[in-house]
Amino acid sequence: MSNDLFENTPHPGLHFRLALELLVDVSDKRDLGWGPLGQRFIVPITGGVFRGGPGFETLKGMVLPGGADRQLVRPDGIKELDALYELRTEDGDELTVRNRVLIDESRAGQRYALSRVSLSAPSVPWGYLNSRLFLGTLQSARPTRNAVIVRCWEVDDREFHLRGSGS
């Protein structure tokens, strides 16, 4: 009976669009010791830059120093990262980024490093970012720069229409 519902209810196609690219400068990781869930670390965020993807071109600026990436290495070797930091747009607004990353380096080939990124923004002109789902990727910029590259993909269940002015 429930199989009929699966068969007869069309599923929406999900669409992904690059919304944001961030180059986040970091300093050295500091060991916080073991906790009940695993070994804990903190990585201070010291600055960086960001830019919007297609349709988000007006979204650009700098990563502000003062944030941090809290890391947990679980007993099974999986890493959980929880980064919280601010961005300042070229027009002076400040956005808060929370990036929760899951890293599995046990796979052959490229590591699994995907995240859910939440953006908190003032209502104008960036308020629409508060009501969107973003998935992220995380890559190291080393040895060229002591930084990570975060790319955020907006997820939607319909075709995208370019925003032109970021609204």
TrEMBL record:
Pfam family, one: DUF3237
Superkingdom field: Bacteria
Listed name of the protein: DUF3237 domain-containing protein
